[in-house]
Amino acid sequence: MRSATLVCIVLAFATGTANGKAALSIVVYGATGDVGTHIVQEALNRGHQFTAVSRRPEQVEMQHDRLSIVKGDLLDRASVAGTVSNKDVVIVSVRGVIGDSGTPESALQFLAAEILVDVLSQLGDPAPRLLHVGGSGSLEVEPGVRYAAKLPKVFIPKGLEVEILGQILALEFYRKVDDVQWTYVTPPKNFTNGPRTGVFRIGGDQALEDKRGRTRLSRADFAVALIDEAEQAQHVRQRISVAY
Ligand SMILES: NC(=O)c1ccc[n+]([C@@H]2O[C@H](COP(=O)([O-])OP(=O)(O)OC[C@H]3O[C@@H](n4cnc5c(N)ncnc54)[C@H](OP(=O)(O)O)[C@@H]3O)[C@@H](O)[C@H]2O)c1
Description:
Blueprint: H1 3-14, E1 25-29, H2 34-45, E2 49-54, E3 67-71, H3 77-84, E4 89-92, H4 108-123, E5 129-133, E6 140-142, E7 145-146, H5 147-150, H6 158-174, E8 182-186, E9 190-192, E10 201-203, E11 216-218, H7 219-232, E12 238-243
Parallel strand pairs: 1-2, 1-4, 2-3, 4-5, 5-8, 8-12, 9-11
Antiparallel strand pairs: 6-7, 10-12
The structure holds NADP nicotinamide-adenine-dinucleotide phosphate.
């Protein structure tokens, strides 16, 4: 065997994942969050290289030889551009409301979509794919009726309402984007701390209900679906939903 071939085989083995696929370089905004911590764990367990971004990286306790922790803020366009270049996949799983306008445009989820699409479209062909963790308020519970319209507004804090509407706005924004490889991955309304089962269904715009009319999923299983999409790119420029 020629030595160049041997080097290639050794390199491929060294960068491979548990399921034999090439390891991806994944960056996550929101790695310290309730959902993000499951995403980090799932990606590391599968052998990927991971960059966790936090505004306060000193607070991140996770350690792993394939995990880099970097300081970054999604609202800082220059830092975003530096962080996402040369990566395979960017995942955004953040929450927040910026300012006090009370409009959906002030939801961090919408602002993140705008900033990341701008940065990625400027990177052109080598740009990473973008996976956006969406909101269940955007799912249809009846033909033409979103879950957000069914929520009892009096019981919902204003900030959460802004985020729910901001997530819908983000989805509408992505649907007009044709020069970035985005996927909007939506959890169901009941997002639990249950175990990782690896068994779930993938749907589209309609909320997926189980036989008992429940629409639910553990964060651990959501992370499985998200990293499946990172590896397989089966739903580029689509919104998908995940539930049992
Ligand atoms: N049923 C549902 O539909 C449902 C339920 C829950 C969550 N979600 C969605 O899941 C996603 C994650 O939610 P979560 O519950 O995991 O949120 P979380 O626990 O509140 O975490 C929020 C994350 O946002 C990050 N963040 C905030 N501002 C940032 C900024 N300016 N730049 C970079 N990062 C920033 C924080 O990172 P640092 O503080 O480390 O910087 C933190 O990791 C959101 O999109 C949310 O809408 C959906």
